[in-house]
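Our consortium's second objective concerns turning raw sequence data into structural hypotheses that experimental partners can test. To show how far this objective has progressed, the report includes one record in full. It was chosen at random from the queue rather than selected for favorable results. The single chain below, 262 residues long, was entered without modification.
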Amino acid sequence: MSGDRKNWITPTIGGALFIAGLIGIIWCPVGVGQRLSEAFFITGFLTIAVDPFLRRRLLKEATTDIFHHLLGFDLPVEIRETLKDFLLANRSYRRNVIIEAHAQTRPDGDVDVTWSMNADVVAVAATEYVQHVSFEEPEHGLILEASVTSSTHPELNYTEKSPSLKLDKDQPMVSAWSGKKVKLKKGDEIHSFVKFTTRGSRTGFSTTHFGNATINPRVRVSGSSDLEVFSSASDQRNENEYIHRKVFVQGDHIQVRWRPKT
């Protein structure tokens, strides 16, 4: 049943009770019929006149005080609005995320880092998912491959080899690529894969930022025989695998660092 139809159920019932009560008061002036008609009349009147007002008031108070009830203290309006926008914008999240980074020394002494990112994207509400990768100019970024795979909706699948980057008109020295828009319904799940390279100095680091909420990502690092490679501190570590037991939100990042072996 649509939301608009649901909104009309209570007023319709209230109107029916109001009319039935009014008719009963006129045609049954005495006895049990009179008292029953008065009860219908009053119930219908309260349903029509008072119930919508109370519901609007309760909804307003609930939305105003939700963070106070959750946190136990009030926040400035600007922070509340930002948090509300953030929550409403998170209509999907990523899980089973594995990030692999391999650092390789180039003949000229610089270091190329090859990244592979696998993730399952889960929609918690109807939304559009778009793969997006961007690079700062000094990173010399190149995308090798990008794909989206759905086992339940194969018509959404696509693979792109070496897609072209475009300069970001709003951000100088930034180039970016965006994949196809994939429409997801609540509960839909797709697999996202991206492979790309970046470049840095002999001793350096590279940063990857998260575009949406990500649960417990894992980072696996490796390098050529002349390099030591590390990642950001994690909750657990198994040699070259860094295991994070937390949620990363939009704007959070992980760094991969390398240096020559001593």
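The partners drew two points from this record. The radius of gyration is 29 Å. The CA atoms of residues 12 and 48 lie 8 Å apart. Both points have been shared with the crystallography group to help prioritize constructs.
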